[in-house]
Amino acid sequence: MWTRLLYMPLPQAFKPSLVNGRWHRPLISARYRNMLKYHFRANAVPWTYENKEPKVNPRHKAPKGHKFERERPIKLAKIKKALENQPEQILKYRQEAINNRKLTGIDYAIKMAVPSFLVHRTPESEAGQTASRAVVNKYKKKKREIRYFESHEIVAPEDEE
């Protein structure tokens, strides 16, 4: 056994080797390696022939955890940002709800009685409508105006003296 140490360095003698696609056992077995280690320590010679880093087993890593636990900080940041913008969002939502509400009661009666070209509309009142809806409404207005003029006779106001 000790003569094997003469023709191969110690670290290589402790490891199995791959020769021509086949594994060969280590030249010095674990039993003799431990015996060498014992004699080294007995003679106060440091043993430097093994890896001091332990092998890391992938099963010993920290658990990944649940997805909701990992993403919780991101979710809390989103909520905090949304809470900062909340008053503006509520105001915007309410304004859109008012602008898109169907007319009823006196508002509906006024709309039907007064031609649409006479009603004063501001850009703020039409801000809640989308572009496509505005085009459709514009088309409907023209149709209503044509129908109104066909069914009503326009009389010019007489001058009073």
Produce a short descriptive summary:
The chain is mainly alpha-helical.
What are its keywords?
single chain, 161 residues, mainly alpha, 3 domains, two-stranded antiparallel sheet, 7 helices, 2 strands, 49% helix, rod-shaped
How does this structure look, described?
- The chain is mostly helical.
- The protein has three domains: 54 residues, no CATH class; 36 residues, no CATH class; 49 residues, no CATH class.
- Helix content is 49%, strand content 4%.
- The chain is built from seven helices and two strands; from the N terminus they run H-E-E-H-H-H-H-H-H.
- Strands 1-2 form a two-stranded antiparallel ribbon.
- Strand 1 and strand 2 form a beta hairpin.
- The radius of gyration is 45 Å and the shape is rod-shaped.
- The protein starts with 9 loop residues before the first helix and ends in a 10-residue tail after the last helix.
- The model has no long low-confidence stretch (mean pLDDT 78).
DSSP strand content: under 5%
Question: How are helices and strands ordered from N to C?
Answer: HEEHHHHHH
Oligomeric state of the chains?
Answer: single chain
Low-confidence stretches are: none
Strand order of the largest sheet: 1-2
Relative helix content: 40-55%
Return the domain count: 3
Alpha-beta content class: mainly alpha
Instruction: Tell me how many strands there are.
Output: 2
Shape: rod-shaped
